[in-house]
Amino acid sequence: MGDEIAHTMSLEHDPVSYNNAIACLDAKFWKRAMAEELEEFVRKELFMKVGKPKDHCIIGCKWIFKHKLGPNGQVECYKACLVAQGFSQVKDIDYNETYAPITCHSTIWTLLVLAARHQWHIHQMDAKAAFLNGDLSEEIYMKTPSGSDTCNSERGKREFNCD
Asked: Is there a smaller number of Cβ atoms within 10 Å at the N or the C end of the chain?
């Protein structure tokens, strides 16, 4: 009974750090979510491990953890997102411009009204690692994320196993 209460309490708050995630009861699920995120980087051939360059800024990174809940309040998915700490970059030295595609609520509402009026089918999806589809002209150097050394590749560079 105590484990069930502790597990339910752990769902009330998402882990705020790598250490917090691997210390909780759901550690194996968070490790799997991190492995899936790293696998997406490998699958898209977005990185390679290199030595630290002397003349470039090295960006830190951080894991963001989120429980995705279903309609009944049960955990549907464990999401781990690796984000670069780009605030350490300097404009015109490390990058030239920034762009983040967003939409206004009024645009979504308008589309939903049109869909209802014309009886269109609506499909919702979660684009996994959608931000990885952008093209960069600059080279970005990022520190190795916490926990990546615990994910051992068992099938070449294509799959990480964090269990």
From this structure: N
